[in-house]
Amino acid sequence: MDETRRDRDADGRAHNARPRDGLGRPLPYGSHGVERQPEGVVRAPGETVREAQRLLGAGMPFHAHEVFEDAWKSGPQEERELWRGMAQLAVGLTHAARGNAAGGARLLRRGAAAIAAYRAVDPHGLRVAALIAWAEELADRLGAGGVVDAASEAPRLRP
Question: Are 63 and 55 within 8 A, CB to CB?
Answer without folding.
Answer: yes
